[in-house]
Design brief:
about 550 residues; 14 helices
Length: about 550
């Protein structure tokens, strides 16, 4: 039986295609596996580092509570008499009012009797058996609270320090219990973790029993998590585990470090991120690899087809067509002369002349296009710069009066159509000439920049802020009524009243007077600003450093 003849071009094309597909698929699989492994380890290590860093930032905040009690113990004198008791209580009450982080503060004699305490709680009781009292006789200490601590419920940690007389003899102990409400002050540190990357990470602080102190639902029991058990071993790191939401998470963990002054609290810091979001960069990388692989596969198939065709198919027809296009001009330097297949050589000879002409025309076209684009960009930049200079105050970068009136009229028309209100604040720096006379114009300019920056930070992106005079500013508040405008003005007045310090160390105190007005039905922008200006004048007349409101009637 005679076998059918096999065509050379399909055979070569098939073999090359199979080889290309196999090589590209193997490369894609290997590259994807390595990328997932590397990225998972990288993200896990970063989460572990974040947990350690967060723990190291929390510990000094807790130790500051111990420094409070140490400082309190220095000048505090304890005496069992009525006058001494009264004096001690006033000191403790003053501290508790200034630092609401403490649930209870007490002054205790060396025999354990509570001589004075905040709100008089447990005065006269004996706490000699309390661990914090015994430790406080020896030196400053911070430890977990005792179950029967006389401060009552809600304690986070116990703090105590000895009270000494002038000769250095211990005459008592100052004890305190930090309230669980204090933990709310560190929530911002935990939430900072979620701002990194894609914002899917979260941080938790757990107590010695594995219950949530901050960062999640308070009191939730997470002691069964593998990351918590691993952290108890004393080693920091990360692992992958099933989280509370039923999804796989990468979890970095760190155990609280005891120090010479702080006992082992057993707290654990966890920083977790869902695997699905953590590996988002890997997915994007895989998609890119797959796209590149697909492109390479297409190119490889095309190359196999072209190679098979070049070997098997004569190019006589294409060469004849190319010779017909030849115009007899030598094209050396434009297209190299091809050797090997005769037809390819004939084609290259025919195309050399044509490509020379096309190349010259293309260079001319690109040159003209480039020059036109450069000219257009220069004109656009010049116009943009001119508009910016016309609308902007050169010192503060705020709008000037011209830009304020133009955009303010558009804003008022739009708000009237929507049925919304518009308010204005006029601000003037009090005694600004004295600042220039005393410190010089450079400090005066710094004062104007300070007021402008305070205004930027105090208001919304939709508000219009402008410097309309030497030391006078105007703020338009879309959607704000008169009450809201007054609250914002008071907040700005308070912020500016804190003053600022120049780079040379000069402390500059400033006050401002402000006038507020809300647009009345049918009233124009100029009329509203005029009423706000009269309110500003009234604030100046009434003694400055105040906010005055323009009446809606009259």
């Amino acid at each position: 039986m005679r076998l059918p003849a096999i065509a050379l071009r399909p055979l070569i094309g098939s073999v090359l295609t199979l080889v290309c597909v196999a090589c590209i698929c193997a490369c894609l699989l290997l590259t994807g596996w390595l990328a997932v492994r590397h990225e998972t380890a990288q993200i896990g290590n970063n989460l572990g580092i974040s947990a350690n860093s967060l723990r190291d930032r929390l510990q000094p905040r807790l130790e500051s509570r111990l420094r409070d009690i140490e400082l309190l113990a220095l000048p505090l004198g304890l005496a069992p008499g009525p006058e001494g008791l009264k004096a001690s209580r006033s000191v403790l009450e003053a501290l508790a009012e200034r630092l609401p982080a403490y649930a209870w503060i007490g002054a205790v004699a060396t025999d354990g009797t509570v001589l004075a305490a905040t709100r008089g709680v447990h005065e006269g009781e004996n706490v000699a058996r309390q661990p914090w009292f015994r430790a406080g006789l020896e030196g400053p200490t911070l430890s977990l609270p005792s179950p029967d601590m006389p401060a009552g419920q809600g304690g986070l940690v116990d703090v105590s320090a000895p009270v000494r007389d002038k000769e250095g003899k211990v005459i008592g102990v100052v004890g305190a219990q930090v309230s669980r409400r204090w933990i709310n002050t560190i929530t911002s540190l935990l939430s900072d973790v979620a701002t990194d990357g894609n914002g899917a990470a979260s941080a938790l602080l757990l107590d010695a029993g594995g219950h949530v102190l901050a960062g999640g639902e308070s009191g939730s029991d997470l002691s069964a998590l593998a990351s918590v058990r691993q952290a108890r071993s004393g080693e920091g790191g990360y692992l992958r585990e099933r989280w509370l939401d039923g999804k796989d998470h990468l979890v970095g963990y760190a155990l609280w470090r005891p120090s010479r002054r702080v006992a082992d609290l057993g707290w654990v810091v966890l920083v977790s991120e869902p695997v699905s979001s953590a590996l988002t960069p890997v997915k994007q990388l895989l998609y890119s690899i797959m796209a590149a692989g697909a492109l390479l596969l297409v190119l490889a198939l095309m190359l196999a087809w072209l190679l098979a065709r070049a070997i098997s198919a004569p190019l006589s027809g294409l060469a004849a067509a190319a010779r017909a296009l030849q115009i007899g001009v030598d094209g050396d330097g434009i297209l190299p002369r091809a050797y090997g297949l005769r037809e390819v050589g004939d084609l290259s000879l025919a195309l050399r002349s044509m490509l020379m002409r096309l190349s010259v025309a293309e260079r001319q076209r690109e040159k003209l296009q480039s020059e036109g684009e450069q000219t257009a960009r220069r004109l656009e930049d010049d116009l943009s710069h001119a508009r910016h200079m016309a609308d902007t105050d050169p010192l503060t970068g705020l709008f000037n009066r011209r830009a304020l009136m133009r955009d303010g009229l558009d804003l008022l028309a739009r708000l009237c159509q929507q049925g919304r209100c518009l308010s204005a604040i006029m601000l003037d720096i009090d005694h600004f000439k004295l600042v220039n006379d005393r410190f010089g114009h450079m400090v005066g300019d710094a004062a104007l920049l300070f007021v402008a920056e305070c205004a930027r930070q105090s208001y919304r992106e939709s508000d219009l802020i402008a410097r309309i005079g030497g030391e006078e500013f105007t703020i338009l508040l879309p959607g704000a009524d008169l009450r809201t405008a007054r609250e914002l003005a008071e907040r700005l007045r308070t912020r500016i009243g804190q003053g600022f310090q120049t780079a040379e160390g000069i402390k500059v105190s400033l006050t401002v007077s402000l006038g507020c007005a809300e647009v009345k039905p049918g009233e124009g922008l100029e009329a509203m600003l005029d009423r706000a200006d009269r309110a500003l004048y009234a604030a100046k007349t009434d003694g400055r450093n105040r906010v005055c409101i323009a009446a809606m009637s009259g």
